[in-house]
Design a protein that fits this description.
Number of strands: 0
Largest sheet: none
Structural class: mainly alpha
Helix content: 55-70%
Shape: elongated
Number of domains: 3
Number of helices: 24
Radius of gyration: 27 Å
Order of helices and strands: HHHHHHHHHHHHHHHHHHHHHHHH
Distance between the termini: 24 Å
Length: 385
């Protein structure tokens, strides 16, 4: 289960508890039976909520962590009388939960003819109904405007983060059209989503030009997002664009990251020149460490070997797959053996977390007599794995 799936499951569980319901039958036939019973009398919000929660694996299938969950699990009832004779009434109902049930039914049956009805539900909620917006995405609506309005109406809160992720993973041609149409919007919230969308689109020279223009035109906060997108593009010849921001408190971190992502000669030479001196800028050091460029990683290792790191600089290589390659074994082993900073040497022991080769095992054995207690203890733990 991914982190996002786990969060969704917890969120759904919280909703179940808050509404006081637990799941029961989860088959299509049982749903039809319960749906018919529910419709035997005028449907109310509590009745609709009960039906949703009792059959959440069918109606909220897009949020389940079950890997065996079937997409559009109620599609087989789309042409049946129980659906055709009641779906319009559910949308016309004044009850919010009843409308939610209608949206979920349309999404679970993949009834694209109800897209306009789902949009009305979203509009009537002042664009705050996250489930209605999600249903539009599930139904493959090509109009991203309502989704954008929903994200903004919910103030980019945690409750809407999954919708934002889904939005950024829609069909790339749709995402690109939104980004190009909205990048220079007068609405900064739309600008932000447009830049995020640009970062998810495969790099194109024309899009890179627009992002460079955005860096020049945007205010300080928004500049950072545009620079981040350029970093993801591995844009070259970036130094002239971001040089003035390398000392800006709000922009220096992302600016160093963008510069380290470039492979153009001028950009790389600039970084190597700074790396040859004693730089204590943690953002510069992190940019080197997290780069996929071998030159920058070796520059970082050289700084560490010289003992030029600030004493309180925290090294984190837990997710750094590049630095964990075999070719850096010698450098990292030497640093751990000779380091005068226990905290930093200890952090580099993560390099050996999953290594079982003879050279690594031999080195770990030598660490059993290291002068730093933390190194000795970690070596012992790793050898016992």
């Amino acid at each position: 289960m991914t982190y996002i799936q786990a969060k969704i499951k917890l969120t759904l569980f919280a909703v179940l508890i808050a509404w006081g319901f637990t799941g029961t039958a989860q088959t299509v036939s049982d749903f039809e039976k319960d749906f018919k019973i529910t419709l035997d009398s005028p449907i109310t919000n509590p009745m609709a909520s009960r039906l949703i929660m009792d059959h959440y694996n069918l109606l909220l299938w897009f949020y389940t962590s079950d890997t065996n969950a079937r997409a559009y699990p109620l599609i087989e009832i789309r042409n049946e009388e129980i659906y055709q004779n009641n779906i319009a009434g559910l949308f016309a109902n004044q009850g919010q939960s009843v409308n939610t049930l209608a949206c979920l039914l349309a999404a679970s049956t993949f009834d694209t003819s109800k897209i306009s009805d789902v949009k009305k539900v979203l509009i009537n909620s002042s664009y705050k109904d996250i489930l209605a917006a999600k249903c539009l995405l599930v139904l493959g609506d090509k109009d991203l405007g309502p989704i954008v309005k929903c994200i903004i109406a919910n103030n980019f809160s945690e409750s809407v983060q999954y919708l934002t992720i889904d939005f950024l993973n829609v069909e790339q041609s749709l995402l690109e059209k939104f980004a190009l149409d909205s990048l220079f919007s007068s609405n900064q919230e739309i600008q932000y989503l447009a830049v995020k969308a640009m970062a998810e689109i495969p790099p194109k020279p024309t899009n890179e030009v627009l992002l460079r223009q955005a860096v020049v035109k945007f205010d300080t906060v928004m500049k950072g997002w545009a620079i981040a997108a350029l970093a993801k593009y591995n844009a070259n010849n970036i130094l002239p664009l971001i040089k003035d921001y390398l000392s800006n408190d709000q922009l220096q971190q992302v600016s160093w990251r963008a510069l380290a992502a470039s492979t153009s000669v001028e950009d790389m030479d600039y970084i190597s020149q700074i790396a040859s001196t004693k730089s204590e800028d943690p953002y510069f050091l992190d940019a080197l460490l997290n780069s996929y460029n071998d030159v920058h990683l070796r520059n970082w290792l050289g700084i560490v070997k010289r003992g030029d790191l600030p004493k309180d600089y925290f090294i984190n290589i837990s997710g750094n797959t590049k630095l964990k390659e075999d070719k850096y074994f010698k450098d990292i082993s030497e640093i751990i053996s000779n380091s005068k900073n226990e905290m930093q040497a200890y952090a580099l022991m993560r390099y050996f977390d999953d290594r079982k080769d003879q050279a690594s095992l031999h080195f770990l054995n030598t660490c059993l007599t290291h002068s730093f207690e933390g190194i000795r203890e970690q070596a012992e733990i790793l050898l016992k794995k």
